[in-house]
Design brief:
Structural class: alpha+beta
Number of domains: 2
Number of helices: 5
Mean pLDDT: 87
């Protein structure tokens, strides 16, 4: 397969939306606890790794990012003012998300001199496919509200696409889960399985792979597949001054 490569020049003027005011300070607490919150026109983060900031800016999973090992150890406290024009669009989820990601990318380019390009890499994945008996869940209304709720033993979703559901499943598997179902709508989903931390004396329940097959009529197959990744070409440990 011919590799796909799209260079992204992260010059701030090319990205449009920008935070009005940004404060970035190194966090040397040596703690692994971090918090992030976006509301009332502000984005605030405490002890956030640079790796997490890049993942959020480009809406990618951890396995999709290739860069220096220290991206996960360099941590910062961040406070950024979201323009009123962007905050006004918060009810339009897709429009708001695109604007927020653009501002995050601009911030990383300006303050950390981040430069990166997209590529594709073949890796082991789980392919989410429809089982022989067909699906066991219902399609939801298009254009409606989407919601997801999950923990270590169950998941419920309303108005969820198969791509988004595959992303949820990836959190519980040892490799990324990719959507190969061919299902294009949004769906109402409910899944319960035996969590890794459940009481050992309790009756044994299905693992998540078995639950997906028995309860939803889907299967997860081991495959090799090309996955889009983001490769960091340059980034600096110390941000420019506030």
């Amino acid at each position: 397969m011919r590799p796909f490569c799209l260079c992204i020049l992260l010059a701030t003027p090319a990205l449009g939306q920008q935070f009005e005011v940004v404060s970035i300070k190194p966090n040397n607490s040596m703690s692994y606890n971090s918090q992030s919150r976006t509301d009332q026109g502000m984005m605030n983060g405490t002890n956030i790794s640079l790796r997490s900031l890049i993942l959020r800016a480009y809406d990618i999973k951890d396995y999709q990012l290739e860069g220096p090992d220290w991206l996960g150890s360099e941590r910062f406290d961040i406070s950024a003012k979201i323009p009123d024009s962007v905050s006004a669009d918060s009810r339009d989820r897709e429009k708001y998300r695109a604007a927020f990601e653009s501002m995050m990318q601009s911030m990383l380019a300006e303050r950390f001199k981040l430069a990166a390009h997209r590529d594709r890499k073949s890796m082991g994945v789980y392919a989410l496919v429809v089982g022989k008996g067909g699906i066991k869940f219902k399609q939801g209304p298009s254009g409606g509200h989407s919601s997801s709720n999950s923990n270590n033993t169950h998941y419920t979703g309303s108005g969820v696409s198969m791509g988004d559901f595959a992303g949820i499943l990836s959190r519980y598997m040892d490799a990324p889960v990719l959507d190969f179902t061919g299902l294009k709508g949004v769906y109402e989903l409910k899944l319960e399985w035996q969590g890794k931390e459940d009481n050992a004396d309790a009756p044994s329940g299905p693992g998540i792979t078995e639950a997906v097959q028995d309860q939803l009529g889907l299967r997860m197959e081991r495959r090799k597949a090309p996955v889009e990744i983001l490769v960091v070409d340059h980034v600096e440990k110390t941000p420019t001054e506030n």
